[in-house]
Amino acid sequence: MPTEQDIRTALGNVRYPGFSRDILSFGLVKGIQIEGGNVTVEISIATRDPNIPRLIHEQAMDVLKKVPGIGEVKLNFDIKDPPGAGTTASDKLGKSSIPGVKKVIAVASGKGGVGKSTVASNLAVALSQSGLRVGLCDCDLYGPSIAHMFGTDERPYQNDEQQIVPIEKYGLQLMSMGFLLEDASPVIVRGPIATRYTQQFLRQCAWNDLDVLVLDLPPGTGDIQLTIVQTVSLDGAVIVTTPQEVALIDARKAVGMFQKVNVPILGIIENMSYFLCPSDGKVYHIFGKGGGEHEAKRLGVPLLGQIPIEMTVRESGDEGHPIALEDPAKSASSKVFCEIAAKLR
Ligand SMILES: Nc1ncnc2c1ncn2[C@@H]1O[C@H](COP(=O)(O)OP(=O)(O)OP(=O)(O)O)[C@@H](O)[C@H]1O
Ligand SMILES: [Mg+2]
């Protein structure tokens, strides 16, 4: 008679169509019952594409039939609408799967170092300045930077209900997955552990009545990002890129990841778009010109804004006082963040 472990091992070979990850590590297998040799597996998927359950069914049947001693196999599918389906950027009361949060926006990029955390922080601040209740969560286990950008080394505490209470700064609620790890441990948090940790983490935070939660995703399309797009009800994603081709190629991969699970792309933010030289007053397109605009057109999504390269953006990040806190009349970047926030709220 097969054991639950035999069934799990077999299901570990069933890939989610279009991804290299298996359905087990995505957390789609909700139950396994074994009676005699007969096996029933409960699978939950969020998709509107009828091919996805069909392909998973075919693959799962194939691998399970080969398990020694197996009798009848039954696969029960629970098919839900994908995250974000039926909601729009202007749907302010969109329900998210995270307690205490009305709307979740992910900030992502394909390439690292394009200024995603800078953009996520300033966007969150600008949304908060516009009167919304805003939270910001740093989902980067390996290189968390939000705490640094907000100049805090406070650690969150657990309340009586075993929830982690976010830190408050400049009127925002802040959380970082890195807060909960000891300094040396991130290296070992990989694959399935990172997946499980991510799934639990966002739901265990005591978010206090947020209109918007901004998620600063790690760069690329790794375990944490895939888990979030698959299990969190995202209202939309914002893609950050710099203007040059290498960044745009990677940005397309990030866009593809969200599109596969039908998360709406709210738009592209081009960072480090140009440099206004203080000494000669000229505009220099250091990383090239028009890349973000061209990509936005290609995808049919808005170019939400172009943020210049400014010393003050970097300095304010390092000083723990995001530039969007400055008066938009006095800072070109703050003005752009303010305009982007107005488009997203
Ligand atoms: N528009 C800008 N002008 C000047 N400096 C910037 C700008 N945007 C980002 N930076 C600086 O570039 C560096 C990288 O930015 P940031 O950490 O936001 O990138 P990231 O995409 O989140 O990186 P990672 O992929 O490592 O998470 C930081 O020092 C930041 O202050
Ligand atoms: Mg970052």
Describe the structure.
The protein is α/β, with parallel strands linked by helices. It has 2 domains: 4-80, GMP Synthetase, Chain A, domain 3, CATH 3.30.300.130; 101-344, P-loop containing nucleotide triphosphate hydrolases (Rossmann fold, 3-Layer(aba) Sandwich), CATH 3.40.50.300. The chain has 10 helices and 15 strands. The chain has helices spanning 4-11, 51-65, 116-129, 146-149, 191-204, 223-231, 245-260, 291-299, 311-318, 332-344, and strands at 29-35, 38-46, 73-80, 101-108, 134-138, 157-158, 164-165, 167-169, 172-176, 210-216, 236-241, 265-271, 275-276, 283-284, 303-307. The strands form 4 sheets. The chain has an 8-stranded mixed beta sheet with strand order 8-9-5-10-4-11-12-15, sandwiched between helices. Strand 2, helix 2 (51-65) and strand 3 form a beta-alpha-beta unit. Helix 5 (191-204) packs across helix 6 (223-231). It is elongated. The model is unreliable at 86-95 (pLDDT under 50). Bound molecules: adenosine-5'-triphosphate and magnesium ion. Magnesium ion is lined by residues 116-117, 140, 145.
Lay out the secondary structure.
Layout: H1 4-11, E1 29-35, E2 38-46, H2 51-65, E3 73-80, E4 101-108, H3 116-129, E5 134-138, H4 146-149, E6 157-158, E7 164-165, E8 167-169, E9 172-176, H5 191-204, E10 210-216, H6 223-231, E11 236-241, H7 245-260, E12 265-271, E13 275-276, E14 283-284, H8 291-299, E15 303-307, H9 311-318, H10 332-344
Parallel strand pairs: 2-3, 4-10, 4-11, 5-9, 5-10, 11-12, 12-15
Antiparallel strand pairs: 1-2, 6-7, 8-9, 13-14
Adenosine-5'-triphosphate binds at residues 109, 112-118, 140, 143, 145, 219, 271-272, 307, 309-310, 313-314, 317.
